[in-house]
Each structure stands twice: as structure tokens, then as C-alpha cells.
Task: structure prediction
Amino acid sequence: MLVSLVGIGHMVIRPPSMLARCPYNHRLNPLGSYINALLCLGTKSISSVKVVWRKDPKLDEAIENDKRYKVCARVVKEVLNEPGQVIPLRYLEKRRQRLRINWTIKTFLDRNPGIFDVYYDRIKPKTQAVKFLRASDRLREFLEEEKRIYAENEALLVAKLCKLLLMSKHKVISADKLVHVKREFGFPTDFMVSLVPRYPQYLRLAGSPGEGKSFLELVDWEPEFAKSVIEKRAEEESRLTGIRMRPNFVVKLPRGFFLKKEMREWTRDWIDLEYISPYADASHLDQASPEMEKRMVGVLHELLSLSLFKRIPVPILGKFTEDYRFSNSFSSVFTRHSGIFYMSLKGGIETAVLREAYNDGQLIDRDPLLEIKDKFVEILEKGWRERAERDRSNTAKVEEEMMMRALATAEAD
Result:
């Protein structure tokens, strides 16, 4: 599989059929000798082709906008996981680096008021009282709302869990892996003990989570679980138009991305390959075949579609390489199919983003469980507004005092 240059500094896949027509000349183009060398690598497999990454500022901004909310969520989780759901402030201060907080805890609390109450207590009897943190009444109200939202969306949570297992090679995944990705898919913190046991008709847990030898197995499922987002979309379009629609990917090229004729032909040929459901048995497919690439893109598309924000850090996806039969170089798919995915490097972490879920950087394909995030952001923003009002009031008082002093000085003169 070959590459061609499209736009400025952006490489994409070129079909092998174009090998004989290399339009690049090293005497006319300083990159010509490098490009021609690449064009002559006709024996290179599609998975080994290196494709140059291109920045998408809007999608990067979407990730950046969630940073402050996520820092607060990490701190809340840290406090709630403590015995009695309280923690000495100085203990939390020692964990700042692990929690990735760039300020002191005192500054963090000042910048994010309304989440915690600060009070004095003794760590041990007869010791001096020190500052402790506990959830505020406002945060307690949110936690009750969170329980309600989880209860209302329990069917969705079960379907997600079954779908993750159904796509896997043997319909079994390490329980510890699933616990590790709970935030990406919106599962409750204790879903292995609060949710899984209530659905023995679908799920069976072997071992104990946390021991490294526990597995969650799919024992049965509903036919609807075995339909991908793409298949459901085709069914809905067929229903609305009365014309049988073929399942396939939405290709949404980023702005300024121009495809040469040869690349358009390659993309058309790849899209024309039959769509392979991520829930279909793929054991007969050769790992290096175009069909397996189509199937892998389908699995990654479905995983991102099931996620809360329609994006997942690539290292987390990499933990499931064996479960979902990904190649070791699976991450190159995200740049090779730039019209379907975007690979963000924001924060020094590779994050795979589903393009069709966003419009101008705004998430349009919203998961119902995002209501939890919305409620949490509401209490954060309320605290931020109160802080801003307090700062304005303090500033006004200082200005008034300065004016009074100036008037008093003027009268004295």
C-alpha cells in the first residue's frame, strides 16, 4: 500500500494501481526523492504505512474544555473513596502530583468553592485539630441526582456492557480491564457489584475484581445488542426513505483537506468494500487483509460510539488489542482514515476522536449518561459565579475605601 501527498505536509493512502504513475519529480520538488521512494514500496502492508498527522484545533479545544471539570471530578472521587468520605487537607496536599493538580489544595478550594466543606477535627485522639474536607450539601445533592440518572439509564448500561463483550474474540474480557475503562463508557464506580449480579441472564462474573484473575463473560444477549450504530443508522434511513440503505461509514474530511483524484479513487474502493459488523464472527479473516482493516475500523467506530464523549485515549484502547483482534499498529488507523477519526495529541496523550459525533468542535451525538456530567458542571459553575461575585464585591469595597481615604486626605489639605 502506498502514500501520496495531499495538501501541505499531509500524507494519505494511495492505491497500488497508481505505482506506475508517480507524479513527483525530485528535480521539481525537494520532497520528490523521498516521495518517490515511498511510492516504490509497493510491498508495504497497509498497517505499516506511516501517515502524517494533521492538527484539528476545534477537536483539540473540545478536549481542553473538559480539563477543569475532570480535575474537580478526580478530587471528588479521591475524597469520597476515603473512610467516612472525609480526608485531612494535608493528606490531600501530598497527593496533588498523582491527581495532576497544578495548585496547592488551598488554592484549588478557593478556585472551586461549593464542592467541599472545610472543618477542624483530630486525626488521632489527643492530637491537635487540623483541617478536614468533606462533601458539601451541594455535592451530596448531586450524588443523589447521579444515583437517579444511573437508575433511569440502567438498560443502556447493561446494553453497553453486553456490546463490549459481544465484540470481543471469545465474549469474555478481564473484569479489571472493564473496571479500568468505566469512566470512558459511563459505568458506575461499583458496577461489578451493583449492576452485574442483577443480570445473570446476560452476564457471569468469574473470580473477584481486583485480583487480576477475574473475568466477565457474556452468556446470552438480545438480537438488538448485535447491531452497530452504523447498522441502526442504515435501518432508520431505509425506513424513512423506503429505499434499502447499505451500512457504511460517514466520511467527514477536516477543513482544508483536499484529496487528489488517485486518493479519492482509493477511498471510494475502500468504502465500497462490504461493511463488516463489529459483532460478526471475524475469525476467518486474515489479519493483513483489507477486509480485516474494514472490520477493525468498524470495531473502533463502535467503541468510540459507545463511549461518553465519543473519544478514548489510545493507550486505553491498546489494552484491548488481544480481546478485539487489533493489530499491534492499530493506532495508525486513526490517521489513515482521517475522515472518520481524529487523533488528538492534546495534553501529551493520544486520544482517538469520532469525527461524525462533533460539529465545529461541539459534541452533537450526546450520550444520555452525560446528564451526570452536566449536573456536576452546574454545581461547579455555581461556585465559580459565587467566587466571581465575591471578588467583585471585595474589589468594590477596596475601591470605596481608597476613595474615602482620598476624600479625607483632600479635606484635610
